[in-house]
Amino acid sequence: MEPRLVGPGPYRATRLWNEIIELFRAGMPLRKHRCRFKSYERCFKASEAVDCLHELLGSNQNFGPEVTRDQTVKLLKKFLKNHVIEDIKGRWGKEDFEDNGHLYRFPPSSPLKSYPKKPSCGKEVIKFPDWNEPKAGASQEDIPVKSVTMNSEMWYKRHSIAIGEVPACKLMFRRELTQTNIEEIWKSMTLSRLQKVLGLDSLDEVLDTKLVNSKHIVQNVYNVNKQGIVTLEDKSKELPHWILSAMKCLANWPSCSDLKQPTYSGFERDVFKTIVDYFGQMKEPLLTFHFFDIFVSVLGLLQRPSKAVEALQISCLLLPPENRKRLQLLVRMMARISLNQDLPPLSESVRTRTLMVQAFSHCILCSKDEIDLDELLAAKLVSFLMDNYQEILSVPSALKSSIEDHVVHLQRVQIKYAGVDSDATLPPPSFCHQISTDEFEYQRATGSQEPLAALLEEIVMNKEISVKDKKKKLKQFQKSYPEVYRVRFPTPETEAMLFPEKTKQKPPILMWALRKPFQPFHRTRSFRM
Q1: Facing residues of 38 across strands?
Q2: Which residues lie in coiled coils (predicted)?
């Protein structure tokens, strides 16, 4: 069984869990082992399982080579707890798996996880202002407006002054957008772009849009300093000064201005432990529980780095400003520490980069409910964040420009013509709701047949075309749309009633022609001999 890339979408963590189980069962070598003078068929040592699964995860593009052996052991513990494996005596349910020579085996069938049914979230309808209403106090005549289909003749009359006829028009002053209107526009267009980047038909299964605060998006875009770090309006939500000083000390080592130079060995490790303890005691990760599924879905785009960066840029705009600022400062510190050759090792056994991922991945991303792969998924995301933090944690300029242009368009004074909608060039956002299968089939049938039936009736009732042309058109219609034609003319009799046969009268015989005497044949001169 070949590993496959699990792309974005709902229940990605569950899909990955099931795939790893299938790959592990297919790839784990089974052989005969002896234990305490007894032989056991089709089993494996714990250390062999760690070797096999570690290699499998490292070569799998959903996880990558940064998966450590310790993380592999933790995953096998969860396998034992969930009865993916059992010891040779059939015991399971506890996380007491160790990297040793203990013997394990597969049960007859390893249970795969079913996809949970999430409660359906009612779609939020965003109300936009009525742009066509003039400002209060404006004295302009009301011109009746109705939606019409633009044809070539109307276009020509509107845009040409050569014919000497210009349609009546007036300037439309748009209602002034409130701050709430602008925030809702930002939310609507931001989520629309995120859905497009992820390539999903809907965000319903990975994100509850009601939990997205439009104010947070606007604040994360505009309330930033020169370095792009979010500035908070509520100063009580700032990081404590002593934590900021500790983070600056390690990020700028050895040139640290906030603290004096260390006077004892191991000072940098104590500072690092202080930072780890502070972020480890948070009740909720920086990416929040609500957005866990959306960030896990983004991991499916890591094979296309540019798409993944854009998706993470947009997803991070949804965070509360205080979370976004802490994430910016923390990831920047982690990246600088990993690249700092002057900083003494913070661990004797683990490389600095691996230590950063292990120490902070849980406080950046984790699920509220226990997810068996959340540690591996968080490590994958944090590694990508460290490598691309400058782009990911900056404001997406293309999205910002498009939304600002849209807002300017909505505020611009428009020329409104009589008989034509003033906003024909930019239709307002439309929203849809889910319907049942029966209703869909009914709409599909009636939505296409009703216009065709109207067209057929128009052909039948048209008295300006000849009978021959009408029969020709009806024959073509019957060939193209037999079902619609059969409804209008269910029997040949009903069709015959449309063209009643006329009784043909023979013309009267001209009696005077019979009374004319017979004219004998006379030779002409040319026939004489």
Answers
A1: 35
A2: none
